[in-house]
Structure formats: structure tokens, C-alpha cells
Write a structure and sequence with these properties.
- The protein is an alpha/beta fold and 339 residues long.
- It contains eleven helices and 15 strands.
- Helix 5 packs antiparallel against helix 11 and helix 6 packs parallel to helix 9.
Length: 339
């Protein structure tokens, strides 16, 4: 039985706790929060942009810690699940690895490349798993698309366009703080760079245009430059919509023998014979199912002693690099090499 300790009971910690109730071979054994009301089970003040509202929680049987150090000292905890703000990820992850714990850390892996590389190195030195919770590949539509591209069953990837647009977040003070999260070009857009890296690898260069507010890039459109013969991939992402516009994400992926489309409706597969099919997907419509699958992959990784492909620290590091190169491109107006 893998025993999990969740650090940080904000919106994402709440979602991970709910997902943790669905796991096989694991249990949420501890939580860590500086908020005494949350330690007592009062999570009614938690708000997010999906999923159920915060509620009173029955935490009987769950160890409760006010400090991270105390949770790390618990010998019964195998996996530390870090759900704090991004600027805290690196020091907390490296402390957990040094304490002999496996780590699952929410995206983004870190704010800086130096921190991300230090985390990857710390995991190797400790002989423990560093897994980064990029949930997008666990959503059924994106899981189908990733398998379709990586398996080659519809032929070569020719091109794609991804969209991820929200209104400015008003449900969390920290998520809107660019110094704490990197702003939308990191905290939001890294979902896209991670998925693009997963299906197409790291491009040779990026060219981005966008909007800068203060020091943060809040909206951008990027071309990922793979060179001659490579796929033509673009993405538009950011916090630029009016508050009444619902969160919108989707894609069109162009393969030699199929087009995959996700926009304002179910995933549709268009084939050369002119047909359009909507594949039956497991877990569709359940906002917690993807997170449960993500946590199950982490648990299975700990059990097997092997880093799960979709939670790779190196893949998460590469996704962060892309975000920073795109920010540089927006601010300079020039294409930026990635290698």
C-alpha cells in the first residue's frame, strides 16, 4: 500500500484529495497545511474553475501536519504530493527527495530552468522518483490523441493547432500572481507545451507574438519550428477572454489518414472516406477522473520503481523551457532557438 501525503490544501490539493479516494493500492494518509481550519476539515472556502465546491471533509484516519518538515519526518509516508504554488515546488521537492520520499509535484515543475534541472538531478542522486503532475494526457480526448499520434495508426503527424483560453482568474490570489506562478504563459500554457513535446518532441525554435502586462505574458500565439519535413504546429493560449466566456481548450490534429478535432463538443475523428466518428471514451464528463488516473500512474510508478512516461520530470523540464523561450520571443519579436 502506497501511503500519500498531500502538501498544500488549496484548490489543487482538494482535487488531488478527491482523486486519491479512487486509487487502487494507495491511500491518502496525511495532509499538510498551515491553515488550522483546513486541518480540521473545513474546506468550504476552496474555490476553483472546475469540479465540486469546497465542503466539510471527514479527515478521520488522516494524519495532519502544520509544517512540511513534520510530514517529511513521518516514516509511514511513501509519496509526497506537492500541491503548493509553483515558486515553492523546487525547495519542497528537493527536501522531500532528500528525506527519502518519492515526489509527485503539480505542474509547472518549477519557475526556472535551473530549479527544474536541480530537481531532476536531486531525484537521480536520491534514487527516488520525481514525477510531475501534467494532467492533460490523462483526459480521455487528449489520451486518444496522444495514442493516435504516437502509435502511428493514422500515419505521420502533419500539423496541429491547440487552443487554451481563459478569463483572468479571480478565484485565487496566488494563481493570478505572476511572480508566484509565472503568469498565464507558464501556469496555463505549460499544459500545451507539455502535450506538444509529448507528441512531437522539442522543436528547433519558436516564434511567438502576444500580449505583455507588467512583466508577464498573458496571451500568446506560437509557431513551433521543427524544420523541413517536420510538423507545422501552432498554439494560442492565455488569460485574455471576458469573464462571461467559459474556459475553452481544444485542438485540430492533422495526420496522414485522419483529422482529430476537439472544439465545443465531443472529440471527432474525420477519415479519408469522408466519415466523421465520435469515439467512445472512458471517463468523459467526470472532472476528477483524469486526476485519479494521473495519481494512479504515480502510485503504479512507485510500486514498480519506474518513472511513468507521462509524468516524466525531463518532459516537464522541456515543457518549461518552451514556455520561457516563447516568452522571450514575445518580448523580443524574434524567433528563439530552443536547443
Amino acid at each position: 500500500m502506497v501511503r500519500i501525503g498531500i502538501a498544500g490544501i488549496g484548490f489543487m490539493g482538494y482535487i488531488h484529495y478527491l482523486a486519491g479516494q479512487r486509487l487502487t493500492g494507495a491511500t491518502v494518509a496525511a495532509i499538510c497545511s498551515r491553515d488550522k481550519a483546513k486541518l480540521a476539515g473545513d474546506w468550504r472556502g476552496i474555490r476553483g474553475n472546475f469540479g465540486p465546491p469546497g465542503a466539510m471533509m471527514d479527515l478521520s484516519g488522516v494524519a495532519k501536519y502544520e509544517t512540511f518538515e513534520d510530514m517529511l519526518a513521518d516514516p509511514d509516508i511513501d509519496l509526497i504530493d506537492i500541491c503548493t504554488v509553483t515558486d515553492q515546488h523546487a525547495p519542497m521537492a528537493m527536501a522531500a527527495l532528500k528525506a527519502g520520499k518519492h515526489v509527485l509535484v503539480e505542474k509547472a515543475i518549477a519557475l526556472t530552468l535551473a530549479d527544474a534541472e536541480a530537481m531532476v538531478a536531486a531525484a537521480k542522486a536520491a534514487g527516488k522518483l520525481l514525477m510531475v503532475a501534467h494532467v492533460l494526457p490523462f483526459f480521455p480526448e487528449f489520451a486518444f490523441a496522444a495514442d493516435a499520434v504516437r502509435s502511428g495508426r493514422f500515419g505521420k503527424l502533419l500539423g496541429a493547432h491547440f487552443t487554451r483560453v481563459i478569463a483572468k482568474p479571480d478565484w485565487s490570489a496566488t494563481i493570478a500572481d505572476a511572480d508566484a506562478t509565472g503568469g498565464p504563459a507558464v501556469d496555463l500554457h505549460i499544459h500545451d507545451t507539455h502535450f506538444i513535446g509529448l507528441i512531437a518532441g522539442v522543436p528547433k525554435a519558436v516564434f511567438s507574438t502576444g500580449r505583455v502586462e507588467g512583466s508577464a505574458v498573458t496571451y500568446l500565439t506560437t509557431s513551433y519550428l521543427y524544420g523541413p519535413g517536420g510538423p507545422a504546429i501552432t498554439c494560442s493560449s492565455g488569460a485574455v477572454a471576458m469573464s462571461g466566456r467559459p474556459f475553452a481548450h481544444g485542438f485540430e490534429i492533422y495526420l496522414e489518414k485522419a483529422t482529430l478535432a476537439l472544439a465545443n463538443g465531443p472529440l471527432t475523428v474525420f477519415t479519408p472516406d469522408g466519415k466523421a466518428e465520435q469515439p467512445e471514451l472512458a471517463g468523459g464528463g467526470d472532472p476528477i477522473a483524469a486526476f485519479a488516473a494521473e495519481l494512479q500512474a504515480a502510485v503504479d510508478g512507485v510500486t514498480a520503481g519506474k518513472e511513468p512516461d507521462l509524468l516524466s520530470g525531463q518532459l516537464a523540464r522541456d515543457a518549461l523551457v518552451l514556455c520561457h523561450k516563447e516568452i522571450e520571443s514575445v518580448k523580443t519579436g524574434a524567433a528563439v532557438r530552443v536547443g
